[in-house]
Design goal:
The chain has 177 residues and is an alpha+beta fold. The chain folds into two domains: 90 residues, Arc Repressor Mutant, subunit A (Orthogonal Bundle), CATH 1.10.10; 73 residues, Alpha-Beta Plaits (2-Layer Sandwich). The chain is 46% helix and 17% strand. The strands form two sheets. A four-stranded antiparallel β-sheet has the order 4-5-3-6, with helices on one face. A two-stranded antiparallel sheet has the order 1-2. Strand 4 and strand 5 form a beta hairpin. Helix 1 packs across helix 4 and helix 5 packs antiparallel against helix 6. It starts with a helix and ends in a 6-residue tail after the last strand.
């Protein structure tokens, strides 16, 4: 799947940070969430080829303006930290990268939700998540999907704290009229 350069960059930065976090934990240095300094030259080389018209620094400034990363001045280098907004973007990228396989039993997932107006932002995030996972709009606040993505949906419901607003059903068939 071809991803936008922004999504791909954040995904690679996140994957790299996971590897570095394992090293930090091994040596007892702390967490990448506190401070993360990537090997600047390898990330730069990878993305400069794809962004020929825009320098790597312009790209980093763009991601900073969008709120996906923060650049911290550390001696002797600069460090890049993925922000909460960047982590949400990484989550969406990971969902996009999820292989969508139809359920072997032929059943469909149906998600019914009634998220209050004062939680509009969460409702919109949840709808986007459903779309990325392959759900289709069936009726107002009712979405259906033939793919085996139940665990991803449950994880999203828990992550957003929507347990009391969302119901998930496994249904035998869907009849479109």
């Amino acid at each position: 799947m071809k991803l936008p350069i922004t999504d791909e960059f954040l995904w690679e930065l996140f994957r790299l940070s996971q590897k570095i976090e394992d090293v930090f934990l091994f040596f007892g240095v702390g967490s990448w969430k506190e401070v993360f300094v990537p090997p600047h030259f390898s990330v730069r080389r990878l993305y400069e080829k794809r962004k020929a018209k825009q320098t790597f620094n312009d790209f980093v400034r763009y991601l900073t303006r969008k709120g996906y990363i923060k650049v911290k001045a550390l001696e002797p280098n600069k460090g890049i930290i993925i922000t909460q907004k960047g982590m949400e973007k990484v989550l969406k990228v990971s969902l996009k990268k999820t292989e969508k396989k139809k359920r072997k039993d032929g059943k469909w997932l149906m998600v019914v939700f009634d998220i209050p107006e004062n939680k509009r932002t969460l409702r919109n995030l949840f709808r986007e998540t459903l779309q990325v996972l392959g759900f289709k709009f069936f009726q107002k606040s009712i979405w259906i999907c033939p793919y085996d993505v139940l665990e991803k949906v449950q994880g999203s419901v828990q992550r957003y704290g929507l347990e009391k607003y969302v119901k998930i059903f496994l249904i035998e068939e869907v009849e479109f009229k």
